[in-house]
Write a structure and sequence with these properties.
Elements lengths: L1 H18 L6 E8 L12 E3 L8 E13 L2 E9 L3 E3 L25 E6 L2 E2 L10 E5 L4 E10 L7 E9 L5 E5 L3 E2 L9 E5 L6 E3 L16 E8 L6 E6 L9 E3 L5 E11 L3 E10 L6 E8 L12 E7 L4 E4 L4 E3 L5 E12 L10 E2 L2 H4 E4 L2 E3 L15 E3 L3 E6 L6 E5 L5 E12 L6 E11 L7 E8 L12 E7 L5 E4 L4 E2 L5 E9 L10 E6 L7 E3 L3 E3 L9 E5 L5 E5 L17 E4 L5 E10 L4 E9 L5 E8 L13 E5 L2 E2 L3 E4 L4 E3 L4 E9 L9 E5 L4 E3 L3 E3 L2 E8 L5 E8 L3 E5 L3 E12 L7 E9 L8 E7 L13 E3 L12 E3 L11 E9 L8 E11 L4 E5 L5 E7 L26 H5 L7 E3 L7
Parallel strand pairs: 16-27, 17-28, 29-40, 30-41, 42-54, 43-55, 56-65, 57-66
Antiparallel strand pairs: 1-15, 2-8, 3-4, 3-67, 4-5, 5-6, 6-13, 7-9, 8-9, 9-10, 10-11, 10-12, 11-15, 13-14, 16-18, 18-24, 19-22, 19-23, 19-25, 19-26, 20-21, 20-24, 29-31, 31-37, 32-35, 32-36, 32-38, 32-39, 33-34, 33-37, 38-41, 42-44, 44-51, 45-49, 45-50, 45-53, 46-47, 46-51, 48-49, 52-55, ...
């Protein structure tokens, strides 16, 4: 260590000469062991990271006082999810591990405190209000990482806790907290230490070394770094004035002096003169916007008569420059405050909806006689000032509902059928009354032509949302459309903040006579180009659009229609997704496999036989029930026994001699099997019924109905699964979790990998779209079983949001080998990215996927969960208020810092796509 320390000091002497500071400069390092004090924020201001960016993200943190770090002063920092505190915004969300031995050349670790820096994620730790918090105490700021883990542990490894505490004096304390082992252990590759702005000085943190480490410090280890001997470098510090003294919002064409950003420049040492300032911003497109720079000498944050206009320019595509400035920052005028404002001469719909202001010290500010630093503004978003929405007129948005992917029938010459649901909502207004005057829908046709479409109608959906009923009001109708783009014109639909639901219906004419199951699809137009309003409004394309259902077009003739009941049966998907199934023990009885409906187009018809393809030798019995009981898809007391299969062959399960009367009211049937005690284990047995398998005097059209069952040898090592769906109806609000299922995994023998639990959204109405709803699953800890508490651990779904086209599944090998009984809670919630629309929904549990010989110990009692999504203002813009009080010029705590904290909720989060891993 002595040789190493000497080499460090030689480098520091070079750094001292370069920086113009005295050679006595140093940090005194001490290491002690104590008790880790986790902060919850009770009684003190705090900023909780409540969004979903728990991996590779960073948060801008304004400081309540000037913080001396080496020979420079800083007014803010970035808190990095990967265990760093950075004072410059070069890749503030990076995760690479770099040697900190001087001279450090990697720019994302210079000007940085590497606390416990590595490839860290907090993506699974939302159980306790999030993984990253900032706490403002009376004498320090505490940046806290709580229950984070290393990414390469599949996000289920050792939970780690640590803090970085910084003081007005420049002292830095790195404190390691306790670790908790959950499922899988993993080594922790990390570095720890502090590095100055140019990499010529560095001091070790945990482990007293500047190179990569794998052994973490013990809980309670505290490293204190206290600076001494530093003379402040000459230069200009770029600092934010957090925009807490005005409310961010929406501004309309013609507005002037709209404040969009605040910052200050402050002398460090003898200071310097600023001559040019370049502002990066969102491109205005074809809008005419003037950007202004003011010296903010009057009321802070407000353009008034005391302010001096330093320059104005028409906003360019991405950045605008103010030149020939003479802003002197020295001992006489150590600090100047500035405002950025815009005049909105004319706004077009192509203008970026969110404006942001960025400054970077290394390229955007030119000075004479001094360096510039600070670097608090990042190019990926608005780190210090809130977002603004600039509109030419009122703002209306709409969203198309999610719809089931199953084929539903439309009979040529029959009644109109609701094919799509959407909601339109007035989100922002300048007090003008807004009317929707026209709306376009697009028809996507296959197997028929536009001449087969007799009628398309638009209804105000005033009754049950998503259902055409007597309460709905027709507002538009187009008979015999000539184009697949159908325009409803001459509308006068009032747009309100509460929103209005609409239905699109379609009727197929008698000209369609093809027998063979052609399909027609319909989707609402998403371009926004066909919508007109009075007055003109921005039809913002923000939400997750979805298509209507796919409809089976049937000719106007006597026939039978066969359809699967997708909400209640286990079956492989007919689209991309896991091959899920129903695993049951050998010898299991009354296993529900194929659930379907039969319906006559007219009159009463008789079905005399049903032929299911599938290996009948693997089952000991097969029975058919009329499923008219209280639990769809299950044999219960209300069901009517129809028949036992007459033939069980290697290729078929056949029922003959039936006399089932089928009418225009759909009859629901259920095929149940008794699995043979010697059935082949581990092989999925699929049973299908297609239209050719229905024996009747009429032609049968429709879709193939199928189900899959997998026999399991209960003497083999594996995992028994018990799933209880605890609700069939639930209202889901913005920030609530609704418990929809409990799951227990119990090992058989040596246990094994657990199976995935598979869910998807079947349908939704009223603007509730794909991605509006999501799932969370928690591994229950030492607390009460069946209740969510602080001992429970959040697990990961493949995709937390629900979609009709894809499956959302949880479990599998990522949760670890099952050797003891484990309990889980599954919650339904509003997605963090949901659009602001409310409506009905249906979510289904569709079975298990993968795993080591999994088996249902007892079947779920039902699989359909319906309810209402009350999403509310999920995408609200944020707020403001208060007074910032400007930038502090002293080294101690300023009087204004509490006001800064009021705006922390609007702090920007920068997220990166996780890179692929080998």
């Amino acid at each position: 260590m002595r040789v190493y320390a000497a080499s460090i000091m030689s480098v520091l002497m070079v750094g001292a000469a370069l920086c113009g500071t005295v050679q006595a400069q140093s940090y005194a390092r001490t290491e002690t062991t104590g008790t880790y004090n986790e902060l919850s924020g009770t009684g003190s201001p705090k900023a909780i990271w409540t969004d979903d960016s728990y991996d590779d993200g960073s948060r801008f943190v304004p400081l309540p006082w000037d913080f001396p770090y080496f020979d420079r002063t800083y007014k803010a920092c970035w808190m990095n999810t990967n265990g760093r505190v950075q004072f410059y915004d070069y890749e503030p969300d990076d995760y690479d591990i770099s040697d900190l031995t001087p001279t450090v050349t990697q720019p994302d670790v210079t000007e940085t405190i590497s606390v416990f820096a590595g490839d860290i994620t907090g993506h699974t730790t939302r159980t306790r209000d999030g993984a990253y918090t900032v706490h403002y105490l009376s004498d320090r700021v505490v940046l806290q990482w709580r229950d984070v883990t290393m990414y390469d542990s599949d996000e289920f490894g050792t939970r780690r806790n640590f803090q970085c505490q910084i003081f007005p004096s420049g002292e830095i304390r790195l404190i390691m907290g306790p670790s908790s082992f959950v499922i899988v252990n993993n080594p922790a590759d990390y570095v720890s230490g502090i590095v100055n702005f140019d990499g010529t000085e560095a001091y070790a943190g945990f482990g007293n070394t500047l190179v990569t480490q794998t052994t973490p410090p013990a809980s309670g280890t505290t490293v204190s770094l206290v600076p001494s001997g530093y003379t402040q470098a000459n230069g200009v510090v770029l600092g934010p004035r957090y925009a807490a003294d005005y409310t961010p919002g929406v501004f309309y064409e013609g507005a002037t002096d709209v404040v969009v950003g605040q910052f200050c420049l402050q002398a460090n040492g003898t200071g310097g003169t600023v001559t040019d300032i370049n502002i990066q911003h969102a491109g205005p497109g074809t809008s005419s916007v003037t950007l202004k720079l003011y010296a903010d000498a009057g009321t802070l944050g407000v353009v008034d008569g005391s302010d001096t206009l330093l320059g104005s320019t028409t906003m360019a595509a991405n950045d605008s420059t103010f030149s020939s400035l003479t802003e002197v920052l020295d001992g006489t005028t150590p600090l100047r405050n500035y405002l950025l404002a815009v005049d909105l001469t004319s706004i077009s719909e192509s203008f970026e909806t969110h404006f942001y202001m960025n400054l970077e010290n290394d390229s955007d500010i030119t000075t004479t006689g001094a360096a510039v630093w600070g670097g608090y503004f990042d190019g990926d978003g608005p780190p210090v000032n809130p977002r603004f929405l600039f509109l030419e007129g009122p703002f209306v948005e709409y969203n198309v509902s999610s719809a089931t992917n199953q084929y539903l029938p439309i009979v040529a010459g029959g009644a109109e059928v609701a094919v799509a649901s959407f909601e339109a909502k007035l989100r922002e207004t300048n007090a003008a009354t807004v009317e929707l005057n026209s709306f376009d829908v697009d028809l996507s046709l296959s197997g028929l032509v536009i001449g087969d479409i007799a009628l398309v109608r638009l209804y105000r959906d005033a009754g049950t949302v998503g259902v055409l009923d007597g309460s709905d009001v027709q507002v538009g109708s187009v008979a015999n459309p000539s184009s697949t783009t159908v325009t409803f014109s001459s509308l006068a639909e009032a747009m309100t903040a509460a929103g209005q639901d609409y239905l699109v219906t379609i009727m197929v004419g008698t000209s369609f006579t093809t027998i063979g199951g052609s399909a027609a699809t319909i989707a609402l137009a998403v371009s926004g180009s066909g919508e007109t309003m009075t007055p003109a409004a921005a039809f913002w394309q923000y939400c997750n659009f979805d298509t209507g259902s796919t409809f089976q077009v049937l000719p106007n003739a006597a026939m039978l229609m066969l359809r699967p009941t997708v909400a209640t049966q286990f079956a492989p998907p007919s689209f991309t997704g896991p091959d899920y199934n129903l695993p049951v023990p050998q010898g299991a009885t009354d296993i529900p496999v194929v659930h379907f409906t039969l319906e006559a187009s007219s009159g009463a018809q008789t079905v005399t036989g049903l032929d299911f393809s599938g290996d009948g030798t693997e089952v000991s019995a097969a029975n058919l029930y009329l499923d008219n009981g209280t639990t769809p898809g299950r044999v219960d007391a209300g069901d009517t026994f129809v028949a036992t299969a007459s033939t069980l062959s290697a290729t078929n399960v056949t029922f003959t001699g039936l006399t089932e009367t089928i009418t225009t009211t759909a009859s629901r049937y259920l095929l149940v099997l008794d699995v043979s005690g010697t059935a082949t284990t581990g092989t999925a047995l699929q049973y299908t019924l297609d239209p050719t398998g229905v024996t009747s005097s009429l032609t049968t059209l429709g879709q193939t109905c199928l189900g899959t069952v997998t026999p399991v040898d209960m003497t083999a090592d594996g995992v028994d699964v018990t799933v209880n769906l605890v609700t069939t109806s639930a209202s889901v609000y913005n920030n609530t979790r609704v418990l929809i299922a409990t799951c227990q995994q119990t090992p058989r023998g040596a246990g094994g990998d657990p199976a995935f639990l598979v869910f998807r959204i079947l349908s939704a109405y009223g603007g509730v779209s794909s991605g509006s709803l999501g799932l969370e699953c928690y591994l229950e800890g030492a607390g009460p079983v069946g209740q969510l508490d602080s001992t429970d651990t959040l697990m990961t779904f493949s995709d937390g949001d629900l979609y009709p086209e894809n499956y959302t599944y949880w479990g599998g090998e990522d949760t670890g080998w099952v050797t003891t009984t484990r309990n889980f809670l599954v919650f339904l919630r509003v997605s963090p990215y949901a659009c602001d629309f409310n409506g009905r929904f249906e979510v289904v549990f569709t079975g298990l996927y993968g795993g080591t010989e999994p088996a249902f110990a007892s079947e779920p009692n039902y699989r359909l969960i319906g309810g209402t999504a009350l999403i509310g203002n999920k995408t609200s813009k944020g707020g403001g208020g208060g007074s910032s009080g400007g930038c502090s010029t002293s080294g101690g705590p300023g009087n204004n810092w509490l006001a800064w904290l009021g705006a922390l909720g609007a702090m920007a989060v920068v997220t990166r796509l996780r890179r692929s891993r080998g």
